[in-house]
Design a protein that fits this description.
mainly beta; 58 residues; 12% helix; single chain; two-stranded antiparallel ribbon; 4 strands
Amino acid sequence: MPRRKSEDANIRKLTKSGNGSIGLTLPIELVRELGWREKQKVVVKRVRGGVMIRDWKK
């Protein structure tokens, strides 16, 4: 599979899971920069013009 052009690096597709939910793959560089780990809890909130994903706080 060829690599994407640098201007297309942030273009992603939504994928449908078997149970009806929708998934999105985030760039690994972004995940590493945020310090997120596998199976970490996050909060997804709808905001004006898009969505906001934040770390889950107790």
